[in-house]
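Students often ask why inverse folding is considered easier than folding. One informal answer: many sequences map to the same fold, so there is more than one right answer. In these notes we will look at a single instance of the problem. The structure comes first.
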């Protein structure tokens, strides 16, 4: 029997490819969710290309985001950092695309 989480994850990756293509980007999903299939690091699930800029993403889909993330309509994004680590930003994809297109 197929792994339900793998099916869910691969479906999410395909959904993202369709979304990025619908807003004018070139997007490619790694076969088997393994970037090595595209000559990338194994953690790369998705390539998104705009002009000559290539972005590499790992895709995660979860049933529910943790409440502590504090995502609401009142904030533009959430900045998060592991102790002594690098800071990351989490923001709605549509908002990110809109801001990129307005640059």
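Output (designed amino acids):
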């Amino acid at each position: 029997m197929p792994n339900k989480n793998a099916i869910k994850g691969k479906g999410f990756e395909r959904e993202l490819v369709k979304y990025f293509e619908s807003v004018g980007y070139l997007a490619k999903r790694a076969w088997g969710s393994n970037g090595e299939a595209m000559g990338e690091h194994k953690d790369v699930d998705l390539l998104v290309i705009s002009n000559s800029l290539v972005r590499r993403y790992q895709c995660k889909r979860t049933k529910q985001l943790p409440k502590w993330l504090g995502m609401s309509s009142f904030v533009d994004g959430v900045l998060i950092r592991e102790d002594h680590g690098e800071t990351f930003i989490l923001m709605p994809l549509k908002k990110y695309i809109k801001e990129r297109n307005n640059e």
